[in-house]
Write a structure and sequence with these properties.
- There is one protein chain.
- The chain starts with a helix and ends in a 47-residue tail after the last helix.
- The chain has a single domain, classed as Alpha Horseshoe (Serine Threonine Protein Phosphatase 5, Tetratricopeptide repeat).
- The chain is built from 17 helices and twelve strands.
- 45% of the residues lie in helices and 10% in strands.
- It has helices at 5-10, 19-25, 29-33, 43-46, 49-69, 74-81, 92-98, 107-128, 135-155, 178-195, 200-216, 220-226, 251-258, 317-330, 334-345, 374-388, 395-404, and strands at residues 85-87, 160-161, 164-166, 169-171, 175-176, 235-238, 261-263, 286-291, 298-302, 312-316, 346-351, 354-357.
- By secondary structure, the protein is mainly alpha-helical.
């Protein structure tokens, strides 16, 4: 059974950031996990157009805060289990995830994704009762529901059940393979595209999210077609604000005071050189915070998430172009593949010896050259994805795709070898479903722990 609101706020659920962080804000655990209005209504108020809109706003706010802006949301989990972030060693579960040796329940991300799913479904059901309400808003809800389910497919092991709460009672779902879960997400993405037609912001969001699901399903040409017409300048953020407690971006604050994790560099042999690359997409955006709580690991903050009102990108036009480039690479069109990647990097001109920005908007990126082999092109594609989409919740799914779709072995993709504190990296490539799901009689553990 997936989490109810009480489960989410009262269980082991959302862990608090370190005491130092809480002291700065004057908060405690319960205040971080309480949810203010507007998503609290009297039952008599729900079955109205205004009630439907409040459910929509509440669902989106909850998803943004707990799923994205919280330190242990999707972005943090994806970063630590992949090679994007390194743990500062102050939290046992976080360090075990960094070492790819998850021995306990990593509950937070799992339960918040399910709670978000229930909230989106409730809001969609309410919107469907009132045809006068904007269909674009319903398209946004379907799209974010699809993204949430795609996150479940990218982060969790195979075997996630999609249980429902009907009239306060659990309707237990059966475990789904990763393929089945992604296909379910694709159905909701299709609905997002269907309804989000009048507002370009929601239309482009629906197109990019649908393409992301198709990419995870290995339908490369369909994914490229899905993002046709999405401009490279498009950006859709999970918005944070300082005006509402439950809409703070706590990622940067957690890095500064908790030092749970920071930007990694060449982690575990296979990790990319995020800090030492000199790449202008990364290096100007990091700040040295000194040693983490373990007294060993130097922690570098990701500055774009450094303020309480810092947004976190959920979808953008750069991702659309990267999807098109990978599709070209897949069909053997090396010329289009390279041109697409280089158009993002530079317009081909220089000022003062520095390459001017391409459509990606970052100056100083020299044009790429074709490595001349299929394997080399795959490496370059995924490196470009890693640097353009850094800390945006993509990297774990990409590493799993390198195994699942490109035939790589996990020990050539994920961090491996001696771990920084003790022992060696493990072999986990995803997060196991928490034991709290055992109350579902249909559930008997992960179907498999592979990619």
């Amino acid at each position: 059974m997936t989490a109810t609101p009480a489960t989410l706020t009262a269980g082991r659920g959302p862990r608090c950031v370190m005491v130092a962080v809480l002291a700065v804000l004057g908060l405690n655990c319960s205040s971080l996990t309480s949810v203010d209005a507007p998503d609290i209504l009297q039952p008599s108020q729900l079955n109205t157009p205004d009630g439907a809109n409040v459910l929509r706003v509440g669902a989106i706010s909850n998803f943004y805060y707990f799923g994205i802006l919280y330190p242990f949301g999707v972005q943090g989990t994806v970063g630590v289990l992949s090679d994007e972030l390194v743990s500062g060693g102050s939290d046992g579960t976080q360090e075990a995830m960094d070492a790819r040796r998850l021995t306990g329940d990593a509950e937070f991300t799992y339960y918040t994704m399910h709670q978000s799913r229930h909230n989106f479904e409730a809001a969609i059901a309410a919107y469907q009762k009132f045809p006068q309400l904007p269909r674009d808003y319903m398209g946004e809800l379907f799209t974010l529901l699809a993204l949430d389910e795609d996150y479940l497919g990218e982060v969790m092991c195979s075997g996630v059940p999609l249980s429902e709460i009907v009239d306060g009672q659990p309707q237990y779902g059966t475990p789904l393979t990763t393929q089945q879960l992604l296909e379910h997400a694709l159905g909701n993405a299709d609905s997002g595209v269907k309804y989000a037609v009048d507002t370009v912001r929601y239309k482009y969001l629906a197109q990019v999210v649908r393409a992301r699901v198709l990419l995870n399903l290995g339908q490369f040409d369909a994914a490229a077609t899905a993002v046709s017409g999405v401009p490279t300048s498009f950006l859709f953020n999970a918005e944070a604000t300082t005006s509402t407690l439950n809409q703070y971006n706590l990622i940067g604050l957690n890095q500064v005071y908790g030092k749970f994790y920071g930007v990694a560099d060449k982690e575990g042999i296979n990790g990319l050189d995020f800090r030492s690359s000199g790449d202008p997409r990364i290096v100007p955006n990091i700040g040295d915070l000194g040693l983490g709580a373990d007294g060993l690991t130097e922690i570098f903050e990701w500055l774009p998430y450094g303020n309480l009102d810092s947004p976190v990108p959920l979808a953008n036009g750069i991702e659309a172009r990267l999807i098109e480039a990978e599709a070209a690479q897949q069909r053997g069109d090396a010329a289009t593949w390279l041109t697409t990647l280089n158009t993002l990097r530079t317009d081909g001109t220089q000022t003062g010896g520095v390459y001017n920005p391409g459509t990606g908007g970052v100056a100083g990126l020299a044009p790429l050259t074709d490595p001349g082999t299929a394997a080399g092109r795959v490496d370059l594609t995924f490196r470009e994805r890693a640097f353009w989409l850094f800390f945006q919740g993509h990297r774990l799914g990409d590493l799993r795709r390198l195994i699942r779709q490109y035939g790589r072995s996990q020990d050539t993709v994920f961090p491996t070898g001696p771990y920084k504190n003790n022992g060696s990296y493990g072999t986990d490539v995803n997060v196991a479903i928490p034991t709290g799901e055992n109350s579902n009689p249909n559930f008997h553990g992960c179907l498999d722990r592979g990619a």
